[in-house]
Amino acid sequence: MGCIFKPKGTKYFYVKYYRNGKPYIESSKSVIKADAKRILALREGQIQEGRFHGLKVLKTSISDLLKLIIRKSEEDKLPSLTDRRHYVKLLEEHFGATKAANLATAQVMDYRKKRREQGVSDQTINRELGVLRRAYNLAMEHDPPLVQRVPKISLTSEKECIRKGFIEDEEFRALRGVLPEHLKVALTIGYYTGMRSGEILGLQWRQVDFKQNSLRLDPGTTKNKEGRVAPMISEMRDVLERWWMESMTKYPDCPWVIHRNSERITRHFGKAWKTACKKVGLEGLLFHDLRRSAIRNLIRAGVPQSIAMAISGHKTDSVFRRYDIVSELDIAEAGNKLSQYLNSRRAMEEAMVKKQLKLASESRSGLSDGV
Question: Which domain holds residue 29?
Fold first, then answer.
């Protein structure tokens, strides 16, 4: 049975309760006794239902939970670890000192609003809030649990925030002309293979097979953890060979394909990418848009969907179809094909009508001669 008391020399009421014979003392942080009664009733109810895991859960901050998810991601050697660290940094800046037990839906909505005002897409915000939700789930699975509940962290429907960005061949060449050398290589690989930026940044020269004209991604380094092979077309081979010769001449011990003065690049391209895109009128273009472009080009080229999916690393038809984007050029080509078809049909019909009229005329002429 718990009790309420007010220690000498303090202004707040305290509550005392027991779980498995162990006493717990907690400040109500209120001078009103009724508030202490509500806390006591809440704790005794949680203890009875098996939902009380000690007072540590009340002291755990969101920053503590985010450290937990980074540690777990490092243990699992996730290829998306760089992205997660970036998301965690953003979340800590906004929520870090907040007690995990106190997170409210309104605070999550404020975060989404703030990021939208900064020009961030709903899809990216989903990834960030997904990390926060995962952190809470890990805290619940912890022994003992670090939180008593997982708050509602709503994500925008993926169907509502699917990007439609892509790049045409002329735009690709214009962009490549203004990028730094190491990013020209990354752009070329992304445009022709559809590899994700993290996969490209993790590429080493041992994975570039000039004999077989292919790039090989090791198992465990891709999003679905499976290895895969991407073709190296002649133009991409020329770019990679020149970069390899320059790299080996200056930095023979550097194993990374994408590097800046032999230093591996672990973060996405940021300022240099945005500056180059702005120069050629492609503001807002994401590196991930190259993935959509590569997939669309594979389909345009007549590559069977199963092979295109093997190259891009997609596991399901539904997700793959999101990337097979129709552009104005595709629509114009469809219009031309339809126009050609209709013109051909009309020409055939006109030819048949002329033939019928000719036969009818010859028939009447023959009748006249007979008379």
Answer: 3-52
pLDDT digits (tens, 9 = 90+) for 300-357: 788 887 787 778 776 666 556 655 545 555 555 666 676 777 778 778 888 888 888 8
Tokens of 300: 């345009």
Give the chain's mean pLDDT.
82
- Whether 71 and 204 map to the same domain: the answer is no
In total, how many domains does the chain have? 4
CB atoms within 10 A of CB 154: 12
Distance CA 144, CA 63 (A): 18
Looking at the fold, whether 89 and 227 belong to one and the same domain comes out as: no
**3 state DSSP class of 286:** coil
Shared domain check, 354 and 268: no
Is residue 341 one of the residues assigned to a domain? yes
Q: Cα(371)–Cα(367) distance, rounded to whole angstroms?
A: 6
Q: Give the DSSP per-residue string, 44-110.
A: HHHHHHT----THHHH-BHHHHHHHHHHHHHHHT-TTHHHHHHHHHHHHHHHTTSBGGG--HHHHHH
CA distance 95 to 242: 46
Residue 371 in any domain: the answer is no
